[in-house]
Write a structure and sequence with these properties.
This protein is about 15% helix and about 25% strand. The chain is of the alpha/beta class. The protein folds into two domains: about 110 residues, no CATH class; about 40 residues, no CATH class.
């Protein structure tokens, strides 16, 4: 059997009897690049222009952005619209941070998937299921916030019931507070 890169992460699998006396270098590269990057690696995916960006994996144990667990998405230019960060269609977990310039969202997706949109300045925990990019989880059995969740993010913006009622314009009896709207 000849050496191959038949795994999702492009690990070099040494063929039987190959690399006699030198297999240690390949093994070390597999551990220091492939495994290290996929478990704790941090890479940068830089959008060089105001267009979509594809990151790929090649048959090599050299460092590759698409292998990293954590992807810091940046841009060399201001993005003017939501752009796609297209990742390999393999089973893989990613943490993606949108640090692009231009205050635009990015969508992390596979070439054929619909993906997940990440607002500018936000980190997302994602999973590529071999077809599409999805949220890595959708259930938390408990959650403690250090600060109140803003109303714009689905929270009350307050740390007390009274504050929540005020922010959501509800009176203590639970009925909506009437709002006067002047029509011109």
């Amino acid at each position: 059997m000849a050496s191959t890169y038949s795994t999702n992460l492009k690990i070099e699998l040494i063929g039987t009897g190959e690399q006699v006396g030198t297999w240690g270098a390949t093994t070390n590269d597999n551990f220091s690049n492939v495994f290290e990057q996929s478990i704790v690696g941090r890479g940068t995916a830089n959008f060089p222009s105001d267009a979509n960006l594809t990151i790929t994996l090649t048959d090599s144990v050299a460092s590759q952005t698409a292998r990293n667990l954590y992807i810091n998405a940046t841009s060399g230019v201001s993005l003017t619209a939501t752009r796609d960060l297209i990742v390999p269609t393999i089973n893989k977990t990613y943490i993606v941070e949108n640090n692009t310039t231009g205050s635009q969202s990015i969508r992390v997706k596979t070439s054929a998937g619909t993906g997940i949109t990440i607002p500018n300045g936000v980190k997302a925990f994602l999973y590529v299921n071999g077809t599409n990019v999805i949220g890595a989880f959708d259930y938390l059995n408990s959650l403690t916030l250090g600060t109140p969740l803003p109303v714009t993010s689905g929270g009350t913006g307050a740390s007390t019931v009274a504050g929540a009622q005020t922010n959501l314009q509800v009176d203590p009896a639970g009925t909506a507070v009437a709002m006067a709207i002047a029509l011109g």
